[in-house]
């Protein structure tokens, strides 16, 4: 797993959006970028910069995925049948750390990645500690028994910041859930507008 070099809130300020919709985000107070040049007047962005920003937003949202891994998702999305941008979203949403975040077993994607890495999660009864593991339709994801009373899990489950999407079901009483079906872009509860079509344009230049 690549080490994340920047804090999640610095990512927010650099991109100029509240990427995860969190109340603590500094973007809520300062909409300009970080650093001494953050308040400069913005010029009209080029097509390349618009596409690059779309890629950075999507990468950042899922815990700042490495460029190498993110490109692999794009290549797999191209290889699959159907719309490439929709395939890309489906692959990203099937990451185990993304599923843990969506099911509200962790408060942020970064916390979800750490939670999986530390061995707190099972898939279909088997421990999985690989955050990039891709779940399939019908897979049952559960917090391990010894981890169900951890404060971080209970706090996340009770958080009112976001809802569990319809393509999965969750039982927070027993800390388990099921991945039901393919996630479409229109199904995913992003706090900001995501444009995977621009990401596809970026890589297909």
From TrEMBL:
Signal peptide: none
InterPro entries from the UniProt entry: Ribosomal_uS4, Ribosomal_uS4_bac-type, Ribosomal_uS4_CS, Ribosomal_uS4_N, S4_RNA-bd, S4_RNA-bd_sf
Segments of this protein annotated with the region Disordered: 26-47
Single GO BP term: translation
Gene Ontology MF annotations: rRNA binding; structural constituent of ribosome
The Small ribosomal subunit protein uS4 N-terminal domain, residue ranges: 3-93
Annotated Gene3D superfamilies: Ribosomal Protein S4 Delta 41, Chain A, domain 1, RNA-binding S4 domain
Pfam families for this protein: Ribosomal_S4, S4
Positions in coiled-coil regions: none
CDD domains in UniProt: S4
GO-annotated cellular components: small ribosomal subunit
Keywords, sorted A to Z: Ribonucleoprotein, Ribosomal protein, RNA-binding, rRNA-binding
Boundaries of every RNA-binding S4 domain copy: 94-158
Membrane spanning residue stretches: none
Quaternary structure annotation from Swiss-Prot or TrEMBL: Part of the 30S ribosomal subunit. Contacts protein S5. The interaction surface between S4 and S5 is involved in control of translational fidelity.
Role summary: With S5 and S12 plays an important role in translational accuracy. One of the primary rRNA binding proteins, it binds directly to 16S rRNA where it nucleates assembly of the body of the 30S subunit.
Family from the record: Belongs to the universal ribosomal protein uS4 family.
Protein name: Small ribosomal subunit protein uS4
């Amino acid at each position: 797993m690549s080490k994340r070099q920047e804090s999640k809130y610095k990512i927010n300020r650099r991109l100029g959006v509240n990427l995860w919709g969190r109340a603590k985000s500094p973007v809520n107070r300062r909409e300009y970028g970080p650093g001494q040049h953050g308040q400069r007047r913005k010029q009209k962005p080029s097509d390349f910069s618009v596409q690059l920003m779309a890629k950075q937003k999507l990468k950042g949202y899922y815990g700042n995925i490495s460029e190498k891994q993110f490109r692999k998702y794009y290549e797999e999305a191209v290889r699959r049948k159907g719309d490439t941008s929709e395939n890309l979203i489906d692959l990203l949403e099937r990451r185990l750390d993304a599923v843990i975040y969506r099911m509200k077993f962790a408060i942020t994607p970064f916390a979800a990645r750490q939670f999986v890495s530390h061995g707190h999660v099972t898939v279909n009864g088997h421990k999985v500690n690989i955050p990039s593991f891709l779940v399939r339709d019908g897979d049952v994801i559960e917090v391990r028994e010894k981890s169900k009373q951890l404060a971080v899990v209970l706090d996340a489950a009770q958080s009112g910041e976001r809802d569990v999407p319809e393509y999965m079901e969750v039982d927070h009483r027993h800390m388990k859930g099921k991945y039901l079906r393919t996630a479409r872009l229109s199904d995913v509860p992003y706090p900001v507008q995501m444009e995977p079509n621009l990401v596809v344009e970026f890589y297909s230049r």
